[in-house]
Every structure is written in C-alpha cells, then in structure tokens.
C-alpha cells in the first residue's frame, strides 16, 4: 500500500490557442464565420426537410436528425472557444466541465451512430428496393433514431461519471493493491461443513452441465433451437461457476483469502459478462417457446440457424459491453480499505471500500440492473402471457398438457434466476445484513447453476431419452 496526496481543484483553465497568441483575433474571425455558416446550414436543412413533403423519406429524416445533433454539438463547444479567443473567459467550473464533456460525448457518439444508420438505410434502398418501404417504415426509423440517441448519451454518462469520480479533493487516500475476502468468517466453526456441501454441489453442477452440453451435441434428436439455447446456457453456467466457486472453496479451507486488484477486476468482469449473458439467453429461450407455440407453422423459418446464432451472439455481446462499463466505473474509484465483506468480487461489496462518495456508481448500477434484469424479465413474462393464452385455446387436454410441459422447465429456471437477481441488484442500497446478502449470493452462484441441469434432465423427457440412448439402453 502507498499513501498519495491528491490536489483538489474547483475549476479548470483552458490553454486554448496560447501558442498562437498573435493570431487569436484572426482565428476568432475565421472560426466565428465558420460557426455562423454551420448554424445557418443545419437550420436550413432541418427547416426545408420539415416543410417540403417530398423530403419526408427515411433518408432525409435521418439527415434532419443528424443536422439537429450537429447543431447542438457545435453549441456545446464553439461559443466558449470563441469567448476564450477574445479573452472573455478561460476558466470553467468543475460542474460546467462535466456538463460540457457529457453533452460533447453524447452528441459525438450519436452522430457516429446516426451515420451508421444512414449507411444501413442506403444499403436497404439499393440492395432491397422492393421491400424498402416495409423495412424502413416510420416506426423503424423512429426506433433507430431514439436508440441511437439513447445509446450515445448512456455511454456519455458512463464516461463522464468515470472521469469525474476521480478524487479531486485535497486529502490523503491509502491506495490498496490487493483485497482480502472475509468470506464466511461469521460461520468459522462451520467452514469445513460448508466446504463439503459447496464442493458436492459444485461437482454436481459441473457434471450436470457438461452432460447436457455433450448429450445435445451428440444426439441428433436434440439438434433444434430449444436445445441449442439450452446447451449455450449450460456452457455459460459452467464457466460462470468456474469464475467464483473454486476460489470460494479455497478460502473456506484457508488456502487463499486475498486477491490482487487486477484479479478482482477480472473476476468481476467475467462474473458480470456471464450473468448478463445468462439473463438474455433465458429471454431468447422464452422467445423460442413463444414462436414454437404461437406460430408453429413458421417456426422453422423464423428460428433458423442464423437467427439462433445472432441471438446467442447478441446476448454475449450485451454482457461484454455492460461488464466493461461497470468494471471500469468501479475500478476508477480510489480504495482505502482491503476487507471485502463477501466471498467474491461483487459490485456493491467492492464499491463499499471506496474512499469517496459512490452515489453516482450506485445510480449507474441501478440503471444497468433495470436494463439487464427488468427488461428481459418483462419480455419473458409477456411471451408467457401470449403462450398461455394460446395454450388455453387448444381443444384437447392432451395437447394443452404437452404444450405446458415444453415450457415448465424454462419458466422454473426463469423465476428462480430473475428472482434472485432482482433481490440482489434492484435495491438502491443493500438493506440486508451481511449474512443475508451472502445467502442471496450463494443462491445465484451455487444453487441456480445446479438448478439448470436438474430441471432439464429430471423434468424433460426428451433429454432423459437422449441419456438412455447415449448409454446404449433401450427406452423404458
């Protein structure tokens, strides 16, 4: 550990074009003229597109949104720069600097993504002209424009928070290079029992998930989307448990209770990536069941191999992106203490070690939790409302029973998985005791991964049949 002094500031000073002192008036005139032309040009474009009904097409809609964004983008930067050139103001408060950075990044990222959307619009118009009006309808255009803006300002918020969470107050902070897990120290006399129980559950989890992945890959009867998603979920759960449980078991027998800062960040990164990946895989499985039951005649067309791969890749990509955002936000904080009141590097226990106020990080964590837990959970439950309404219309009791059976395993896993995640992460701040928090964590790190193979092997006839075939036995 080392002790470092941070010098605090309340405002910044722009150096600007100080190396071109004698040309500053010329630069002011040139930049001012260019700024007026920029403003006038963008305002004219937006006005003309709005007035002329011949320009009410997707291409010009995106152009008007881009022009509006460019107008605000230049407003954020150029007026202050012009003021600095004529010596009106070269200082900016900490709060104003943060605001300027936020809007600069927000509009900058939005502009980049809008150009990508405009490229997609041209691709559809030229490569698929007969379906252009169907694909690029006004609803799609509005969703694309809104999504681009929301994405730009979300990443801008993350970046601004990460930068301005850096310590800017004059005070001594003891910086740490490693953490120590307190683990189950409150149950010191039961640690050996816990080790035996958790090791047994871990072996069962590994064996169950590996069996599922192997059986699905070997048995051609299971080469359908539902079991493809199940194999991806089992593989993800296997790696997910590898990230957490082995170290927890070592800690229980006293082999290692410390972890380096880099090791903690790595563990948190993979934990978040795989946890979010699992959430969205369950959503994809819910969508698969919805299509199979509510639209059976088009099932093989809608849920083709390409779509399935895209859904899996999308789930993993979302996990990676959110993990990078969350981990970078947490590990930009200065840490003063070393004892993590947990058995792995979870988000909130690590944030509690920070020397500074973590309200912004708490808000970011809550926003991310809503996006990656509530939204997928809502989509799954909407799917099941539609599924149940369709099943109830089936005439035969046998048909209804069979349809419910195909969904029962998935809905069981969904309820437990999302239930634990909601309890753990949708509270603004933990109101539970340390022991209660650890019990919840044990549920979603040890119990839930085991639930997947248990439910899908004991309750699923097709998987049990595949197991019998793999063992060379005749079906009972």
TrEMBL record:
InterPro entries: GPCR_Rhodpsn, GPCR_Rhodpsn_7TM, Olfact_rcpt. The chain crosses the membrane at residues 25-48, 60-81, 101-120, 140-164, 192-215, 227-249, 269-287, 307-331, 363-392, 404-426, 438-458. Gene3D superfamilies: Rhodopsin 7-helix transmembrane proteins (1.20.1070.10). It holds the Pfam family 7tm_4. Keywords: Cell membrane, G-protein coupled receptor, Membrane, Olfaction, Receptor, Sensory transduction, Transducer, Transmembrane, Transmembrane helix. Residues 41-157, 208-456 form the G-protein coupled receptors family 1 profile domain. It comes from the Eukaryota. It is found in: Cell membrane. Signal peptide: none annotated. It is a multi-pass membrane protein. Belongs to the G-protein coupled receptor 1 family. This is Olfactory receptor 10J1-like.
């Amino acid at each position: 550990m080392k002790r470092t002094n941070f010098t605090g500031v309340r405002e910044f000073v722009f150096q600007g074009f100080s190396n071109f002192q004698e040309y500053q008036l010329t630069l002011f005139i040139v930049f001012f003229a260019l700024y007026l032309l920029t403003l006038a040009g963008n305002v004219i474009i937006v006005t003309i597109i709005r007035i002329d009904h011949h320009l009410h097409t997707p291409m010009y809609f995106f152009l008007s949104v881009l022009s509006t964004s460019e107008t605000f983008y230049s407003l954020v930067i150029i007026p202050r720069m012009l003021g600095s050139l004529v010596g009106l103001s070269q200082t900016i408060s900490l709060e104003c600097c943060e605001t300027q950075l936020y809007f600069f990044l927000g509009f900058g990222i939005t502009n980049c993504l809008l150009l990508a959307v405009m490229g997609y619009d041209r691709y559809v118009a030229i490569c698929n002209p007969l379906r252009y009006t169907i694909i690029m309808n006004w609803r799609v255009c509005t969703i694309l424009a809104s999504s681009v803006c929301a994405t730009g300002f979300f990443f801008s918020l993350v970046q601004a928070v990460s930068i301005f969470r850096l310590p800017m107050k004059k005070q001594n902070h003891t910086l740490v290079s490693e953490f120590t897990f307190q683990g189950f120290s409150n149950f010191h006399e039961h640690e050996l029992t816990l080790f035996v129980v958790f090791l047994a559950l871990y072996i069962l989890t590994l064996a169950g998930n590996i069996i599922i992945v192997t059986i699905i890959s070997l048995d051609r009867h299971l080469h359908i989307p539902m079991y493809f998603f199940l194999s991806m979920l089992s593989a993800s759960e296997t790696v997910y448990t590898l990230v957490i449980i082995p170290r927890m078991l070592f800690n229980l027998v006293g082999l290692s209770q410390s972890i380096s800062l880099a090791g903690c960040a790595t563990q948190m990164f993979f934990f978040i990536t795989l946890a979010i990946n699992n959430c969205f895989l369950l959503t994809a499985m819910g969508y698969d069941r919805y299509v199979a039951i509510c639209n059976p005649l088009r099932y093989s067309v809608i849920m083709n191999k390409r779509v399935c791969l895209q859904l899996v890749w999308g789930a993993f990509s979302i996990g990676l992106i959110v993990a990078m955002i969350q981990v970078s936000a947490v590990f930009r904080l200065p840490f003063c203490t070393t004892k993590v009141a947990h058995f792995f590097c979870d988000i909130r226990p690590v944030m509690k070690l920070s020397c500074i106020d973590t309200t912004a990080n708490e808000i970011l964590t809550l926003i991310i939790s809503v996006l990656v837990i509530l939204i997928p959970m809502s989509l799954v439950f909407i799917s099941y409302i539609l599924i149940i309404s369709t099943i109830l219309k089936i005439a035969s009791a046998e048909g209804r029973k069979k349809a419910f059976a195909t969904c029962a395993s998935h809905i069981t896993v969904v309820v437990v998985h999302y239930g634990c995640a909601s309890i753990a992460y949708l509270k603004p701040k933990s109101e539970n005791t340390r022991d209660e928090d650890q019990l919840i964590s044990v549920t979603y790190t040890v119990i839930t991964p085991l639930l997947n193979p248990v439910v899908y092997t004991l309750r699923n006839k097709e998987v049990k049949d595949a197991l019998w075939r793999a063992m060379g036995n005749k079906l009972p």
